[in-house]
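#struct-pred
JK: can someone run the complex with adenosine-5'-diphosphate? inputs below
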Amino acid sequence: MQGAVTFDAQAYNFTRVVNEVTDYAIVLLDPTGHIQSWNAGAARITGYQSNEIIGAHFRGMYTSEDLEKEVPITALEEARQGGKSRHEGWHIRKDGSRFWGNIEITALHDDHRNVIGFVKICRDYTDRKLAEDELQSHAQKLEKLEDKFRSLLESAPDAMVIVDETGVIQLVNAQTESMFGYSREDLIGKTVELLMPDRYEKAHYGHRYHFFTSPKVRQMGEGFELFGKKSSGQEFPVEISLSPLETDEGRLVSAAIRDITNRKKAEEKFRNLLEAAPDAIIIVNDKGVIQLVNVQTEKLFGYHRSEIIGKRIEMLMPERYQGSHQDHRTNYFGRPKVRQMGSGLELFGKRKNGEEFPLEISLSPLETEEGMLVSSAIRDISEKKRLENEIREANINLEKKVQQRTMELEVKNKELAQFAYVASHDLQEPLRTTSSFVELLREKCYGRLDGEADQFIDYIIQASDRMRTLINDLLEYSRIGRKTSLQIVNCQTILSEVMADLDNSIKEQEAVITSTELPVINGYATELKQLFQNLISNSVKFRNKNSPPQIHIRAHKKDEYWEFAVQDNGIGIEAKHKDRIFVIFQRLHTRTEYEGSGIGLSHCKKIVELHGGRIWVESRPGEGSTFYFTIHAF
Ligand code: ADP
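RT: done, structure tokens with the ligand placed:
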């Protein structure tokens, strides 16, 4: 064996190494926990030098909480029993400051497995601990924030996105996920620009910065169209309102985002409708400020829409109406309903060039999100007015002409009536003379002259009789409507009287006469009786040879007239004679076929016209006739 110097390399190295280790505290403890050795690491971590600490109990550096929980004693016991124990916790340095110690205690044994002491190794994990704590508190804060806003956010109808000052999304609600097609996890931690089309991204940085320098609740991008971008890249129109949120964690901003695709579509439809309307349409708010106009408005008033939108509606009317219009407007907004403006008044508009024109306006209230608006449909009625004037003038002229014509006719009628009266009256006299002398001639000479002369006398007498009838008829005709006055006449009564008068011939001909309920009218009784009598006796007279006369009289009201009808089953009338039969002395048959002088229907016509009505016939030969006439109802 060489050399007397024995160098216990292991013992030497162990001591040196242990003592010089500065990263860890390595401390030897006796079985009761008193410090036996103290290395450089222990001094560095705790601030105690070995001479100050050796012999002291190792629990001296524990906090009172840990001591209360008997952490050091428990750790020793565990190591004693299990060979090793580990724990972590705050420890106190010599200067009173704290460090986070990660401690491992290992029991040392002799050959008989008796515990002869402990090695305690302590690592200073203060930095790691602080970082962990900070992380945890941040997480807790976020959790708190989330709790605070979660229910609020989820109940909002809009997509809510909360971002911090750097634009990083902190929170979103379920509506955001469905609106943009991202999951919450996709969004949180990303910048908000993810949710907008790329072309806005750059500008948005600036806007974002601007908002945080003067944060207040407001609409985003007032006057601009805003768009969102879905995860699919699809864009859609949005409306965004921003509000600042002051929180413990700093200033945030919450953006309420509304998808306005449907509203835009509805607006678009509304706008198309507006433009398609034939009238000028102007929409104003309750302050009378023009909100919307259509192309017809531009044409009518001569302004471009940019010149009138945002201005007061009064600019489109003549100055003299402007003052009172403001009151009308306030009144209208108080009781809004669809109606014509200024009914009964003449309304005027004023074009850009100052020209005035008459117009018609109908107003309708419009309930909108921005409050009550009023839409006015405006129509230029210049042309209508012009036509109305023309018609009015034409009417006046016509009226004058009619009056003149009527006067002329009245004069002529009177003259004619006078003529007929005078003629028939004056004709009677010579006729009477002729008749009386012929009568005389017959008394004196009948049978004394030859047979032919007797026959001539008969002819003269017949002709004179006939002439008398004609003259009487004519006289009667010219008397119709003279010296009579209007009175209330029950047509039912008149019919009964006529039927009584015609009783003989009715019976003779076995005529059946029926009627509906006839009205009470204002008329000339005698003349009306004659009217019914003529029509009914004609129906009896012009009967069909094969069947007895059936006559039906009815009346029904048509507007302001009563329309009467006298229907028979007689021989009928050819269409070509329908007008002729109403002319005086016009007949369709010879006297041998049917009695009569051809004056009955001209009487009827005169009587009906006296009552302001008219008379006509509908008939077919062999199928009977229906005579219609109208009489003014009360
Ligand atoms: P009159 O009865 O004296 O001949 P009217 O003036 O009453 O004269 O009638 C004129 C003509 O109209 C008659 O001759 C007859 O040919 C025709 N007429 C009138 N009423 C009827 C009737 N109900 N059916 C067929 N023909 C008629």
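RT: quick notes.
Residues 534, 538-539, 542, 568, 570-573, 581, 587-589, 596-602, 625 surround adenosine-5'-diphosphate (CB under 6 Å).
Residues 572 and 620 are 5 Å apart (CA to CA).
JK: thanks, will look after standup
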